[in-house]
Amino acid sequence: MLNFEFYNPARIVFGRGAEEKTGELAKRLGTKALLHYGGGSVKATGVYDKVVRSLEKAGVPFVELSGVKPNPRLSLVHQGIKLCRDEGVDFVLAVGGGSVIDSAKAIAAGVPYDGDVWDFYLDEEKGPFTALPIGVVLTIPAAGSESSTGSVITNETGWLKRAMNKEVLIPKFAVMNPEFTFTLPPYQTACGASDILAHMFERYFTQVEHTDLTDRLLEAAMKTLLIYAPIVMENPTDYDARAEVMWTGTIAHNNLLNTGRIGDWASHNLEHELSGIYDIAHGAGLSIVFPAWMRHCHKAKPARFVQLAMRVFDVDLAMEDDEKIIEEMIRRLETWYKRLGLPVRMSDAGIAGDRIGEMAKKLFIGQPEQGNFMRLTEEDALQIYKLAL
Amino acid sequence: MLNFEFYNPARIVFGRGAEEKTGELAKRLGTKALLHYGGGSVKATGVYDKVVRSLEKAGVPFVELSGVKPNPRLSLVHQGIKLCRDEGVDFVLAVGGGSVIDSAKAIAAGVPYDGDVWDFYLDEEKGPFTALPIGVVLTIPAAGSESSTGSVITNETGWLKRAMNKEVLIPKFAVMNPEFTFTLPPYQTACGASDILAHMFERYFTQVEHTDLTDRLLEAAMKTLLIYAPIVMENPTDYDARAEVMWTGTIAHNNLLNTGRIGDWASHNLEHELSGIYDIAHGAGLSIVFPAWMRHCHKAKPARFVQLAMRVFDVDLAMEDDEKIIEEMIRRLETWYKRLGLPVRMSDAGIAGDRIGEMAKKLFIGQPEQGNFMRLTEEDALQIYKLAL
Known about the structure:
The structure is a homodimer. Chain A starts with a strand and ends with a helix. Chain A has 15 helices and 8 strands.
């Protein structure tokens, strides 16, 4: 086990009616809010009205900025920073999923900073070391941004997608009502589950030895997700199943399950190249990349995959041969993705794959070191993309 | 799953050499520390010197108060409160195990309070709503107080042992170096492991339905402890095994594993009556009480015990009969306790048991409702004590 520091001060307020506490929670963060959200869906579902009612009841003044898109854009962030400064806003309330929260984090970091907030995405040495406080009303279990240190923003100038990670970006509170996820389109529920599972795979595949507690905690959370994601697909209004998925999504990414170990995020980056070129959701890109990544990379430490196969995918050791056990596990994973309606090959998503050479090259631009469980070369990346065709 | 609120802002700094950061961490909490500890052991092991060196290096002035005993006393707390006020201390640094931390919490809550800090232990309505910040250098994995809301203090007037639980009592940081536990006497290591396991049992046994994620997280942590506690008994300087036990001890009691469920703490109270009369360590009392409590109370929901038997104690369902499966699990638990050198019956600890009628009566004084998984009557308590003879 490696030395580590763990700190996560996000207050989680979870359950039916949790949103009614938004106003009181927001009041502790400052005097005037930026209410930040996407667009139609929070209005259609009534979440927007509930949040506004709670803010009004608590007497919290706010200004609004909507229009956050998937892969949230820097231009809207700049607009939000200006608005906060002009209006004397001193905290940001994000109502939505990962994109809205990430955009809110960028605005919160940008307001007290003299330079361009994009600096933080290019150079972690620059900060942010301070930010406006952030509150969250979560509507999509997926990104884990509601209690994470991270924010991913796309700069339209050059279409660069970059991340920043700092403690000051952890939201002060996250209101999580599983009922808010009842109305998610099935494909979005599925992509969210795939993203949550990926956050756990990425932590699980480590070369660090003696990580038994966090191994088992990860296995516990993975098992829960594997069981409940298909259940919510079949019955979208099953409260308890939605609750299991939603709480798993937070725990998967709040860094507790990462303590004492170093994960491998190459699969995430391999996916970014895929969704960067083709119009495919992040979760769907991950269900394509993971089986291929596993088939190519398990050789770096087969024992880790055998453990996962036995403990989470119930593959029996009686199969004896490691390769057979691992292949059986990957097939079971593919079956799970398919059951959720997700693609497991580029061809399933209508992607021809004629640009995989270009993708394998681009992966290393500005980020030459890919992978910790297995350090990838461009040839490795190409092989993985080939396995995903 | 029940609605819940989860908030734990303790910063955990874990690993070899972690104590070197104590001074810098302490500096963020205030201008002058009360250095609070037990006595000989932190001096004998060199922990005291390391902490003092780190404080001096960071330029943190401090005054000292030693002499904390197991079952920490109110009189020393009063002494600490006076010392802090006289010396202008604005934060408390606890160096030790649960008793030292609980005593530090009481002092921290008492300093800014006009009345007697004992009020908080008698009436949770009174507070504390504010407290001096608390830092911890942990030397014993057991109580989980390093990131919990709780403090248990004994008032020598009437020998009342009572708890307070409030968010303001969560330490701001906990420095945890597993090497500091290498020199623990074996019996103390064993009692600590028993206490940690109890914290998980107490959360696990719930009548709340749909608690799958937290069930599995608890099972993961229990399994880890069951494996590593015997290993550290055999090889006290096995760093990785010590690290697994130490980190499990914190996670067992930081309330994450309690989210969305209501546990059952009657077993803890049954133990308090035992150790209240006889001079027996809390962990040893728990290893006596739990098998008996399980034998008596499993009937309130056998399925919960069967799940634990299968998932954690590897009892095979092929045994078919619930009663047999549960009895087999309890026997395996007893074997584990014995392997650690802990008693599983009062007779193992040289306790005659002629006062169990008195204990069963006393259990309900001032706390008429005992148990959530199974609500106990005085007759139930007596039966449990009889099973523990």
